[in-house]
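Input record (one chain):
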Amino acid sequence: MVIRFSNNLRLLRKSKRMTQYELAELLGVDQRTISVWEKGKCEPDFTTLAKLCEIFDEDFDNILT
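The corresponding structure, as predicted from the sequence alone:
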């Protein structure tokens, strides 16, 4: 699931013409954290995942799969 999430996150972010830094600011995390997620090295916690769903107007299933 990590690979799909990382690809989905990257695609969603780019579709909004958002930089990693801009997304990090919205989430209150460091830009390096976004990079690690997009590389598939780890995933955000549930609370942060919920914030991502709000930002991108997506549900959990669409972001994770």
